[in-house]
Write a structure and sequence with these properties.
Blueprint lengths: L1 H16 L8 H5 L2 H13 L2 H7 L1 E4 L16 H8 L4 E3 L4 H14 L7 E4 L12 H5 L4 H17 L4 E2 L23 H16 L12 E5 L18 H17 L4 E4 L3 E2 L2 E2 L4 H11 L5 E3 L7 H5 L5 H11 L4 E2 L3 H11 L5 H18 L11 H7 L3 H14 L1 E5 L12 E5 L25 H5 L6 E5 L5 E2 L9 E2 L7 H9 L3 E7 L20 H11 L3 E6 L7 H6 L2 E4 L7 H9 L65 E8 L3 E3 L3 E10 L5 E11 L10 E10 L4 E9 L5 E2 L5 E2 L3 E8 L5 E9 L1
Parallel strand pairs: 1-2, 1-10, 2-3, 3-4, 5-6, 6-9, 12-13, 12-16, 16-17, 17-18, 20-28
Antiparallel strand pairs: 7-8, 11-18, 14-15, 19-21, 21-24, 22-23, 22-27, 25-26, 27-28
Helix pairs in contact: 3-15, 4-14, 4-15, 8-9, 8-16, 8-17, 9-10, 13-14, 17-22, 19-20
Bound molecules: beta-D-glucopyranose.
Length: 764
């Protein structure tokens, strides 16, 4: 009786107050009094255990995405759900499963507080977009936002209301397998893309059932794991954190992201999960974030292995005090927080703050109004895989490819009368293009290259595999084994190439060779593929190498010898169609690398915004005493921002409206860009700035702006960038974000190396 009454009063109050959802800009969420009042009234009804329950997240009944919990723990899930000791679940798929669990939360617990359902919708749910690194290569913020919106619409239709994306970790080391999940090496590009993705996932509000909570992860510095080995130690100065790692996280907060995830790594001796510097001082303090922070999978318990705490109880204590609001699969909060409060080790006010954050997002999502808002089976049927989504991911896939080389204009291909040999196991693979983190999609659901080419029937295409890349189980979460021995398919591939006008070789990494836990020390073409490439080259030099990979690779031999190279990454469901359309010139490649391609692994980490040193590489003196290797160049194979087109773009007339400015002023930088090629094409015009002298040494250049321009043959356009004080600021020796007076170089060009250059002076 009591239960019914409480629920009745509670729901009627909420229904009355919540006629429409809040909008997601910072000021409105901060001042959203009505939600705050509701949260307060609800919290007044809650026991300590029920509050702690809101901070507890369990894995669902699908595959785990981390180490499995201890025997017996998983069995407690249903029991805990019924007691109201669970606030969220992850890895639950489909409206049926979601509804079943939501029903327990809403109908069988004392207060009926709904669950939120999280899932790794990293680049699509069932209709898969290119991997995020590939999307970043498009530099097309509108397409990227659309791709996230498609993912949100599809995921929300199957009951999910929270994605663990975007990963906004700036990453400089391609040995780390998770570079595929982010936007590459640059904090500015990363910030712009983080903003686009968050807008795509969350929209302006959660009034409809097509938007999901986004999650900026992994806070912080996870990508700087020593030697690129996943989960490894990170040691980094505050200046680097602020200037390099934080910007995309800060941009995420400014874009209204509602959740953050912390990271597995330790940072300067403290696991990120227990870092109050990160979570309380910076995120919730300096940046005023009022959403909640979820731990990474088991990251509380892992603090025992880090040697930071001696048991899970101490882990719970440190993590909650440091500002980790929700525990993903460590069972630390549910098992120990109540005792910690009773023992006086954790103040209840700290628990209350965390619970308030979680409840706030549940109100924002509108779950109290309708807990089954995301459980409409008919909507699920009408939405998943719909045609419009296929068009959107195809569009994104075409925009994500990067043309690395095109000697003698081997591309685009003639549409008729040619004999084309296609070689490589990846060309006929319908799973690998889905890439890592596509856990809502079924195997064998991508369009293969062979299928894509078949839509252009006027050439003769003959396919031979040549060699396997991955052998054994290649499904989600399983380690792939690389073929190192079987060359039995070489002869047929060579024969195929001998008789062809053009050879398309699709080589690279299998889709599960990147992603979490997939660090590599050798970034060459895996297995026997390099050997096959060289053998085929002996009989036919007209090779177009289609690289398929989730991270920068080292391909010095191919870069030197193969006439045409197209970076196709892992492009998702529409992969084969997108590649075929680019090969045949229906889409003129416009992508630019979001990460440097090194010549060799020994150069790593290698990135464009490096610092000069006292003996810079630009001087290349005769003597040995300068910053270099004796066996390798300092320069990359392909620099950040690099990417060709079937057209050519010429830059001229770089001008500044004034060569000096102060404080509130602005100056304009203009440049003329002309399409001197035969095809209509798009170019990403890039603006870089170098602060010549700083209170802390400054990078040789930093990306500060970019603009995409589409030009017809012979057309030219003047592109203009506005330069202001804000653009020049950095985290200085005063430990503040400020702009220092001085001289600056300004560069505009087609990539981070090929630019026009001028200079200006700024005075505070
Ligand atoms: C990953 C996170 C992911 C989580 C849940 C962890 O292993 O680091 O990025 O969101 O699992 O699947």
């Amino acid at each position: 009786m009591k239960k019914i009454k409480v629920k009745y009063i509670f729901y009627s109050a909420i229904l009355m107050a919540l006629s429409c959802g809040p909008t997601l800009n910072k000021s409105s969420t901060y001042n959203n009094k009505s939600i705050e009042t509701k949260v307060d009234s609800l919290m007044n009804l809650m026991t300590l255990e029920e509050k702690i329950g809101q901070l507890n997240q369990y894995n669902g009944f699908y595959d785990v995405t981390g180490p499995t919990p201890k025997e017996g723990q998983a069995a407690l899930k249903y029991e805990h759900l019924k007691k109201g000791w669970v606030g969220s679940m992850l890895n639950v798929k489909g409206t049926n499963e979601v509804r079943t669990l939501q029903k327990i939360a809403v109908e069988q617990t004392r207060l009926g507080i709904p669950l939120i359902f999280g899932f790794d919708v990293i680049h699509g749910y069932k209709t898969i977009s290119p991997i995020p690194l590939a999307e970043a290569a498009s530099w097309d913020l509108v397409a990227i936002e659309r791709s996230a919106a498609v993912a949100a619409e599809e995921a929300s239709a199957v009951g999910i209301n929270w994605t663990f994306a975007p990963m906004v970790d700036v990453a400089r080391d391609p040995r780390w397998g998770r570079v595929m999940e982010g936007a590459g090496e640059d904090p500015y590009l990363g910030s712009r893309i983080a903003t686009a993705r968050i807008h795509g996932f969350q929209g302006d509000n959660f009034n409809s059932n097509t938007k999901v909570l986004a999650c900026a992860k992994h806070f912080a510095a996870y990508a700087f794991a020593e030697a690129g080995r996943d989960y490894n130690t990170v040691d980094m100065s505050e200046e680097n954190l602020q200037n390099l790692v934080f910007p995309p996280f800060k941009a995420s907060v400014d874009a209204g992201v509602r959740t953050f995830m912390n990271s597995f790594n330790e940072l300067n001796g403290i696991p990120a999960t227990a870092s109050s510097y990160l979570q309380r001082t910076v995120l919730k303090g300096d940046w005023g974030f009022n959403g909640f922070v979820v731990s990474d999978w088991g990251s509380m318990l892992e603090m025992v292995n880090h040697g930071y705490v001696s048991n899970n109880k101490e882990a719970a204590e440190k993590a909650i005090i440091a500002g980790s609001d929700m525990d993903m699969e460590s069972y630390a909060y549910v098992e120990h927080l109540s005792a910690l409060v009773k023992e006086g080790k954790v103040k209840e006010a700290i628990i209350d703050d965390a619970v308030r954050r979680v409840l706030r997002t549940k109100f924002e999502l509108g779950l109290f109004q309708n807990p089954y808002k995301y459980c409409d089976e008919q909507h699920e049927k009408n939405t998943v895989g719909k045609k419009e989504f296929q068009d959107d991911v195809l569009d994104m896939a075409k925009k994500s490819m990067v043309l690395l080389k095109n000697d003698n204009q081997l591309l685009p291909l003639a549409t008729s009368g040619k004999k084309i040999a296609v070689i490589g196991a990846l060309a006929n693979d319908k799973t690998s293009p889905l890439g890592s983190w596509r856990i809502g999609a079924d195997d064998e659901t991508a369009v293969s290259l062979i299928e894509g080419l078949s839509k252009f029937p006027n050439n003769t295409v003959t396919y031979t595999k040549g060699v396997d890349v991955a052998i054994g189980r290649t499904q989600f979460m399983w380690e792939t084994k690389i073929n190192q021995t079987d060359t039995s398919g070489f002869a047929a591939a060579i024969e195929n190439a001998k008789n062809a006008d053009i050879v398309l070789m699709m080589l690279g990494e299998h889709g599960l060779q990147t992603g979490e836990g997939r660090s590599r020390t050798d970034l060459g073409l895996p297995g026997l593929q390099q050997q096959l490439l060289e053998e085929v080259y002996k009989v036919n030099k007209n090779i177009v190498l289609l690289l398929s990979n989730g991270r920068p690779l080292t391909i010095p031999w191919a870069a030197e010898n193969i006439p045409a190279i197209l970076e196709t990454w892992q492009l998702g469901t529409q992969s084969g169609n997108a590649i075929a359309q680019v090969l045949y010139g229906e889409y003129n490649p416009s992508g630019k690398l979001p990460m440097t391609f090194p010549r060799s692994v020994g150069q790593l980490p290698l990135y464009y915004n490096y610092k000069n040193t006292g003996r810079p590489s630009s001087n290349e003196p005769e003597s040995v005493f300068w910053s270099h290797y004796i066996d390798q160049k300092n320069t990359p194979q392909y620099p950040f921002g690099f990417g060709l087109s079937y057209s050519k773009f010429e830059y001229s007339n770089l001008k500044l409206s004034a060569d000096t400015f102060a404080n509130t002023d602005k100056i304009q930088a203009t440049v003329e860009v002309k399409n001197t090629g035969k095809y209509r094409g798009k170019e990403v015009v890039q603006l870089y700035i170098q602060d010549l002298v700083g209170s802390l040494t400054r990078p040789v250049k930093e990306l500060k702006g970019f603009e995409m321009v589409e030009l017809l043959p012979n057309e030219s356009r003047t592109i203009s960038f506005s330069i202001d004080k804000k653009m020049l600021e950095f985290f200085t020796a005063n430990k503040k974000w400020e702009t220092e007076s001085g001289d600056f170089n300004l560069f505009i060009g087609t990539n981070s190396q090929e630019t026009l250059k001028t200079k200006f002076h700024y005075t505070n």
